[in-house]
Design a protein that fits this description.
Layout: E1 2-3, E2 7-11, H1 14-17, E3 22-27, H2 35-50, E4 60-65, E5 71-76, E6 81-82, H3 83-89, H4 105-112, H5 114-118, H6 120-144, E7 147-148, E8 157-159, E9 166-168, E10 175-176, H7 198-201, H8 208-224, H9 234-252
Helix pairs in contact: 6-8
């Protein structure tokens, strides 16, 4: 059905499991000799099973090992498609230009979006904010359960066709707030720099605030049609994130 950086997902035959809504995730064949990948999949399944009773979280039912010793997890099939796919299908017409470091983002934002700020931005927010609010509520809920996702990005979020339902999945890089270490080593390339916070990219364990940083990065992409860190240095982006927050504050308050 699909594959990611570490795993491959297969549909299960109905006659084998008396249902047609189950899928199986295994480690990608090129990583089957990599013990850390096996440990990460097991950790992912354990966290998701722990959160199984919660709404808007992928329903992982069990983790097992087959005869060759490799692990796999059984999940319920998610409806809809990834937020990343939705973003590709619904691009914004606003193209954010490259901004010289010595020019205020606020000035540039207002100068190139005079009409957009009054019309297009508000219209886009009408679509974007329900999704973001749902995401924020789900993330708050897992934080209340003592879990930090650690890898929030559009590819790890499923949304229904009507945009009313959201499912969060892929907890492979998550951690419990009580954990001081992980049961596996996380390579730097496991994170997506476009959405991961500077602290996480520096090798620190993710905190709740790092999840919030990722939500802000997702908001930026949903508003402007491309990831915020695509062409810019990190300090400049942090400055622009703060300015964007001030610009949108009156709208987001509603």
């Amino acid at each position: 059905m699909g594959s990611g950086g570490m795993g491959v997902v297969y549909a299960l035959h109905e006659e084998c499991h008396n249902t047609s809504d189950l899928v199986m995730k295994i480690i990608h064949p090129i990583l089957t000799t990599y013990q850390e990948a096996e440990l990460q999949l097991q950790h992912e399944a354990e966290i998701e099973i722990e959160l199984q009773s919660m709404a808007h979280i992928v329903q992982t039912l069990e983790y097992k090992k087959h005869t060759k010793g490799h692990g796999y997890k059984i999940m319920r099939k998610m409806s809809g498609g990834s937020l990343k796919a939705w973003l590709r299908e619904h691009p914004t017409e606003l193209k954010l230009i490259d901004i010289p470091e010595n020019i205020s983002f606020k000035r540039i934002f207002h100068s190139i979006t005079r009409n957009f700020a009054q019309m297009d931005l508000n219209l886009r927010l009408l679509v974007v904010m329900p999704i973001l609010r749902n995401l924020q509520e789900v993330v708050n809920s897992i934080h209340d359960k003592g879990i930090i996702h650690g890898d929030l990005k559009p590819n790890n979020i499923y949304i229904s066709a009507d945009l009313k339902e959201l499912t969060l999945f892929d907890f492979g890089l998550s951690r419990r707030v009580t954990d001081t270490t992980r049961p596996f080593t996380v390579p730097f390339k496991a994170y997506t720099p476009l959405y991961a916070s500077p602290s996480v990219l520096a090798g620190n364990l993710p905190e709740k605030t790092d999840d919030l940083y990722s939500i802000a990065a997702i908001l930026w992409e949903m508003l402007f049609g491309r990831p915020s860190l695509k062409t810019r240095t990190l300090p400049i982006h942090l400055k622009h994130f703060k300015e964007l927050r001030e610009i949108l504050k009156p709208v987001l308050a509603h």
